[in-house]
Structures are given as C-alpha cells and as structure tokens.
C-alpha cells in the first residue's frame, strides 16, 4: 500500500467531486428557496393569526385549500 | 414557523436517505469491490458515476416528453409542471454527465473531447437541444401558449432521445465502449453489481430531487394563492420564472 494516488487518480477524483459539487449547489439552491418559502409561510401564518385573533373564523376563511398551509392555519377565535 | 420536514413530508425525507444510502453504497462498491479494469486502469472508475448520470438524464428527458403528452391530452397543468421539472433536472444531470465524460475521455484517451465519436456528439446534441427549452418558455408571455409550445417541444425532443440512442447503437463505435448491449455487456460480476447499485442510487437521487422540486413548487403556488386571498400582492414569491403556473388543489 502506497500513499500515492493510482495513475489518473486525479481525473477520477475530479469526476466524483464535480458530481458532488453539482449536487451540493443544487441542494443549496433548493434549501435557500425552501428557507424563503418557510419564512414567507411564517409571515402569512402571523397575518392569519393576527386576523384570527381579532375576527372569529377569519383565519380559517383566509387560508382555504387543502394543502399543508391550510392544515397549519389557526382555527380562529381561540382567544 | 413551519419546518422543512413539515413542508416536504416524512416520506420524502425517507426517500432522500434511501437515495444517499444506495448511491453511497454504489460508489463504495465501485471504489473497493469492483476490480480495476485491465485495459483502462483506475480511470475506469469514472464509469460508475458517468454512465448512471447519462442513463438517468435520458430517462428524465423521455419522462418529460411523456408528461408533455399527458398535458396535451388532458390540459392538466400538473402534467406540464411534471414535464418542466423533469427536463429542468435532467439538464443538470446532463451537465454532470458531460463533465464527467470529458474527464474520463482525457484520462483514457488523452483528449477532452472526440468529435468523430457518435455517442459523444449525439449526447451533446441532446444537451444543446434541451438547453433551448427554458429560453423557449421564457420567450412566451401567455401561460397557456407557453405550456402548449413547451409541451410540443418536449414531445418532439423526447421522441428524439430514443431514436438518437438507437441510431448511435447502430453506428460503428470509434472508441466509446457500448456498455449495455443485447448480450448484457461485458461487465464482470463485481463491476456489474457496483454499476447497477450506482444506477439505482442515481435514479433514486433523481426521483428525490424531482419530488422536492415538485413539492416546493406546489407549496409556493399554495402560498401565492393564500396571499392573494389575504389581499396581499404576492410579488415576492413569484419573481420572474419560466416554471409553469399551477393552481393549487
């Protein structure tokens, strides 16, 4: 066993690193987008909660739909 | 504050871990289990990342074409979104296949690119063809027309992929090896195990990223819809995008 890379080992390492780099860049872009989406979703939830606190049933009406945002929406007149 | 796990769901998280595990296992098998090829030596190890990337890319393009057919038949924008996402992602995989292929060519043949080789040139043509897909979408303002034209493009280009693949198979190879043939290829058992594990891992990775992208686009569409209902201008979520406009279910 030697410490030296096999012949053409640099190209092999480069190929796998390129793949890894592409994957990481793609995942980083997706994570940034997901983070922004989460932030905006949080803002919307805050608005809905504020509206819901002041106006019974308003939060539920505002969200509508059947997606994850709707499931997480406040139920309105809790306070 | 909603978390990423809640945004994408547990199943998608499990799929992500499965993709990482299988692809990691495939690369580990390629590194430590598969023997060093007698002719090309250590540089043949690039095969286990390059070929799965290329195969998954072409399958992704074909899937984009199939989804486009479904869109043209039904008019359901979800199929258009599927087609768009598959093509968009295949393009990224295609870049990976081209770069890793070029590195392999340099290591094995001493040249970054061989213009006489039908396999290489045809793959580049496929890449350049699909590279025009997004500019096509961007250039059309009307969402209906944008989806329809993009779908027609995806169908024609998607049909070109298998035709191109068969034509290349029928052509005389110069130096690029034919891995998958009717005789099952010339791979010995250990190499075959490593290769198929990498291929399955790459396919899982593609599906995982595809589903993340789809979930993200659906969530964004729903958020826009909620904002609209709340009376806000949802300009910050939209931006300039060529992605299909979908209505949340």
Write up what this structure looks like:
The complex is a heterodimer of chains A (79) and B (249). Chain A has 79 residues and is mainly α. Chain A has a domain at 24-54. Helix content of chain A is 72%, strand content 0%. Chain A has three helices and no strands. The relative contact order of chain A is 0.09. Chain B is mainly alpha-helical and 249 residues long. Chain B has a single domain (12-219), classed as Four Helix Bundle (Hemerythrin (Met), subunit A) (Up-down Bundle), CATH 1.20.120. Chain B has nine helices and no strands. Chain B has helices at 4-8, 10-33, 47-74, 77-109, 118-131, 133-139, 143-170, 189-229, 235-238. The radius of gyration of chain B is 20 Å and the shape is globular. The two termini of chain B are 23 Å apart. Chain A binds chain B through residues 6-9, 11-12, 14-16, 18-19, 22-23, 26, 30-31, 33-34, 37-42, 44-45, 47-48, 51, 62-70, 72, and chain B through 1-4, 6-8, 27, 36, 41-43, 45-46, 49-50, 53, 92, 95-96, 99-100, 103-104, 106-108, 205, 209, 212-213, 216, 218-220, 222-223, 225-227, 229-230, 232, 236-237, 248-249.
